[in-house]
């Protein structure tokens, strides 16, 4: 087989876009989740929780811009089709992201009497954004063109994704805090985990039954054998993490990062399953990645830039996380 | 209502709201670096106080810019799918390079710049400030490149109705790009210098005579006084560039209905597109010919050369006049303030009171200028390549109207909250004066007391 660029480039970009979405879901997942958990946290705890994400949220959200950007630049046809079909959910998502993004800054700068208002807006924006993303995922896996039943399914996925983000948020709080708040976060994690598992099971079952094509990709010998580690491993990780919640926090704060990493692994497994189901389509059952791709010379120049810049981005992102490593303290402009 | 006009209003509202904040952050990043470097050089803590007051404005503006920018990246697809379908091969890589080279750089180092003062060495913190300021400027570079390409496209060929890149250098450095970039960067510098001097004047009026207020005031006023003549010159050059590449835009800006020599410079008029004439016109004879052709009998293009293919006259004509008028006012205010600060070491109260509303003059001029150039590109989305009407998506007008209404309410509320916080921050700084608690700068991380909020 000869290597030919017009075939390879769309594939590479589909991979890059998938990677950007996955990183986004994991990273912004925890800060959206912390916004959701604002509902059950107290005043002082809220400040600590904000301090745990303050230096990172902006960079986390940039992965969404990159994912949408890659969809936009590498698959312009798909970008138009998907976003026109999801016009209203996208709008709701954006309103949510706007509200929470500015609430972050406003709550720290307004006169103290108005802080509560911005805390509520931060919670509200985070919930709206998470629900909208879940709804979009649900509608997307059913092929975008949905009736009332599909919308109901979208709503179910919306709540489960919000729960999944809350789980990520709780796991991040376990990593970044100590004392009473950390213990509380363990309980939050346990509750959110149940809903997360339910959501993943729902999406995993709905996808093959909504599309015969996807059904044939999974339930055929021998594929079913090669693919079986995905669901089995996910289920094991869920169970293991569930049991861990009864032992955390541990003495000397050992394994404080483990819940977060485990959840990230579960997200990655679920994402791999979705990717396998939809390949080679970027708009389910309508447009393949090759039909939707930009011209080869345009993809090539973006690829050159990406190959040079992406490692640098990952490097300095790690650096930023390291600078703000350890337990969260009060965040001040200094 | 028609989805096309609603989509245009919606995108216009979003991009207008968005541009307010990058206009501040692009230049404010460099002003913060200046404060920081002055502190490093002089050890005068007033510079650091100025830094900490303004870094809060920077953080807030940055957040507003990020969230409204995310909105825009989605709206290309939700409202204008035809845009990426036809010119995605050109626009895509430019946007991708903005995200890759600028967005991540700003976002990653913003955290260190805002919150890392005690966690990294002073040198790394200064470096983070440089990288954030550089990132915002780089971001402007890519976006201006794309916008200019839409105004004066170059370096491409059309194959089956789609633009394909031929020469990337020609695409990025297209004919209007250097002029537009310089004009916009200077606009950002002026916006920030008037914002800084305006809020410092508010502190001054409130009785604040602290060193940090004086330092910020002087920085703002002198920067404005230096930049405004440069901007007037750069704007003139940009206009001549537009005359060469987009003459129909110049015709609309001057409300000149017929091509010919000895065209007057219209100071005031109500252009009437149906009758193809100006009502209540006040004009300087031969003025436009003189400005645009440097000769009284120079030929200025008129709208009659572009039937059905020129922008709407009224908004372009007035957008341009509001921008120029604001610019002249900026010249008068900044030069008189600079005179008093330099010669008398004081600021007369009436002048200070004028400077407070002038804090937003940069926003007004920037918006008016962008309206002139963007409406002036109509009916084209990409000049000569793609009409705006051919790019709009299949979304129902009612959906666009509903979302537009919510966006508008949201933007008005956020803008009010933003301005409220700016005033609050200025008044708080005025009250604290030179006694606000301050973190020291040390090479050692984590060794300093925190700054009080």
Describe this structure in words.
The complex is a heterodimer of chains A (334) and B (453). With 334 residues, chain A is mostly helical. Chain A has one domain. In chain A, 79% of the residues lie in helices and 1% in strands. Chain A has helices at residues 5-37, 43-53, 57-74, 76-85, 87-109, 115-141, 148-176, 179-210, 212-218, 223-227, 229-244, 258-278, 289-292, 296-323; strands spanning 281-283, 287-288. Chain A has a two-stranded antiparallel sheet. Chain A starts with a helix and ends in an 11-residue tail after the last helix. Chain B has helices at residues 3-42, 45-79, 81-115, 122-151, 168-172, 177-205, 211-245, 247-253, 287-293, 313-344, 349-355, 361-375, 397-432; strands at residues 156-159, 162-165, 265-272, 277-284, 380-382, 386-387. Chain B has a two-stranded antiparallel ribbon with strand order 1-2. In chain B, strand 1 and strand 2 form a beta hairpin. In chain B, helix 6 (177-205) runs antiparallel to helix 7. The longest helix of chain B is centred in the N-terminal third of the chain and has 40 residues, at 3-42. The radius of gyration of chain B is 23 Å and the shape is globular. Classes of the chains: A mainly alpha (334), B mainly alpha (453). At the A-B interface, helix 3, helix 4, helix 5 and helix 14 of A face helix 2, helix 3, strand 2 and helix 13 of B.
